[in-house]
Amino acid sequence: MALLEVEDLSVSFARRGQRTVRAVDGVSFTVDTGEVVGLVGESGCGKSVTSLAIMGLLPKQPGLTVGGKAVFDGTDLLQLDDRSRRDIRGRDIAMIFQDPLSSLNPVIPIGLQVTEVLTRHRGMKGDAAAKEAAQLLDRVGIPDPKRRLKEYPHQLSGGMRQRALIAMAVACQPRLLIADEPTTALDVTIQAQILELLKDLVRDSGTALVMITHDLGVVAGMCDTINVLYGGRVVETARRRPLFREPRHPYTVGLLGSVPRLDAGRGERLTPIPGSVRDLLPWAEGCAFAPRCTRRVDACVGQPPELVSAHDGRSYRCVNPAPPAGATPAAAPVDPAAPVDPAASVDPAASGEATSAGGQVPAPREEEKP
Amino acid sequence: MFRFIIRRLLQLIPTLFGLSILLFIWLRRLPGGPETAILGERGTPEMRAAIRRNLGLDEPILIQYGRFVKRMIRLDLGTSISTKREVTTEFLQRFPGTIELTITAMVIAIGIGIPLGYLAARRRGRFLDYASVGGSLIGICIPVFFLAYVLKAIFSENLGWFPSSGRQDPILGATRITNFFVLDGLMTREWDAAADALWHLVLPGMALASIPLAIIVRITRASVLEVLGEDFVRTAEAKGLTENVVRRRHVLRNAMLPVATSIGLLTGGLLSGAVLTETVFAFSGIGAFLAEAISNRDYPVLMGFIMIIAVVYVMVNLIVDLSYSLIDPRVRVR
What we know:
The structure holds 2 protein chains of 2 kinds. By secondary structure, chain A is an alpha/beta fold. Chain A is built from 11 helices and 12 strands. Helices cover 75% and strands 0% of the residues of chain B. Chain A binds chain B through residues 55, 57, 59, 62, 82, 85-91, 94-95, 97, 99, 102-109, 112, 116-117, 120-121, 152, 154, 165, 168, and chain B through 125, 228-232, 234-243, 245, 249-250, 253-254, 327-330. Chain A: Keywords: ATP-binding, Cell membrane, Membrane, Nucleotide-binding, Transport.
């Protein structure tokens, strides 16, 4: 059984006199023990809200509705009362946030911020807690941990702060770690170090990791399985290699196409996705991506596209998916009257065939327009 | 830290110098003089001139000022024109009352204001929030002397729970050491005297607390609301800490920074005396005495008291600045 099973999670914010915002609209994904799962998408696609909803950290406000299920090790986190949730948070599920400076309390020393987790969940106090905290800082690569424990967040560099936050998150050896854009606020060289550290920690401890990011480079370097989110719903799920080799959902294609590449030819331009996230069609009225989609057909509008399961555990939510590599462009257009039959769209191209080295981000070449 | 204190105290010298010049000019520009207060309307010009000569007011203003500065340097504030007693003595006798009253008012204001402000922020948009925000608006609007009369009428005259005037019942014949009546009672182990003095502080303290209370509620509420939205509070929640720890260690500690500043300013304000409250409760602090000194044109008292109040004000704010560096490690005093 999966460690975390998120099923049809939805989060909406209702405000008087304003349209209800459905930030998350039926997200489903699973995380297995020890697995690294990516949640990828542009800003505003609902990735952070998803993680906060799972943690029960959404700011309590009138008009907030959370629906669906988030089953962690047999218990639905969304049904728990506040106290049991506090017991699980920090002990079984921990979280790392985007901005390490604002995520640390500026007026208390790093040491206390680490030991308070140990005190809360492992009952450690005084010297024992301080010793363990020093070991934790050491483990996340903070030099001279004893001195650092007495320092305040503003005395640490950005990378050190994120390391300290990671130390707090792994203090109780959680079974699931959720990292919400952990490298966005850091500069590039530090980003690589932090990702490397997370990878090591996950590998050594068997902790499962949910990596939330808009950075496909991050995903390519770490994740086993990737969920691409758009408009608050998962539009494509695949293992890393198949996803990069042959993205099926036009949004994934667009995302990969807009990543700059070092091996791009001179004068070659990036291919941005036209429009913005705000040009959104509610899922109830069809595919949310339809207004921006280059492969849009009539069937995209009217009813939400079904989730199409392909072989190899991958699935996508599209009536007119990008053709797999090797398929002739002529095969791509679909009769708008008849939505794609899942079985029919299965193609043998996914396995075999030489690929560019895994780990890089191979953007697909320009597709012919149908 | 030590250098910071020294520098702030040295800064006090030019401040006091400037203040004394301003005060001197301002007081002498007031129409009339001590002779009018002493003689009233009846005095002949000759009598007025005699009194002015006696007080040294007939000399050129620069010489008068020079004499004042010379005395100031020896920490001699002169003698009151109306009571004929040393200004320092008058001050030492009355200021403890004002300090006691200020402390009482601030204890009430802080003790109720911070928890109420916190709860209002936590229950934002609900009854308690509206009640405390609305209540604090009323607290700011009601004139203090009016509130003082109402409190006195209800709790003293009708219910008889608290004494209506004075600092202590003279029947007790309490021993005086510092003129802090509560402290004196504790030092001499005259418990009933201490309790009685404390009892006398309740009503004027409540009246005086109304405005600081309202301000502290509002600032705490706004500050807590801001901190609640901070990322580090979310981090604390993500650690699974108990609500109590999140509140004390992460929310309140950070929310206290602006509150501390306002507490400093409010305390300083109260220390300069609450004329109306002191008058309503016949409480002998510096407020009522100062007001009287103004109408008597008692120059030495006015000069002396205001100079000392300025020093106290600066001291209070120095303490606030120092406490800032205790609350917030990012603030380094240099």
